[in-house]
Amino acid sequence: MIEVTPITIQGKTFLGITVKLPKTTLLAVTSDLGYIMCGALDVGLLNAKLTDRRVLAGRAVGVRTIDQLLDAPLESVTYEAENRGIHKGMIGRDALLKMI
User: With 0-12 CB in 10 A as exposed, 13-18 as middle and 19+ as buried, what is 77?
Assistant: First the structure.
């Protein structure tokens, strides 16, 4: 099952995406420029092999719901996210506000 939900943070709208798969759930919240995602996101791959794409993203681990993803500290971020002032340990919702 795939669920898409609008999320408002400080008057800005983002999309929350939940994909329920056997034995796991993928979570992401996206803006037009970037996204935060659950532990399934491979930030290392984005930084090492796909640097030229300049992906703006952050990863939070141990989250099971969109609300948890929004409130969790980011465990890792892409180089492009760092360039926009997003850093490891930043709360998901704060990172999203830098992705608009």
Answer: buried
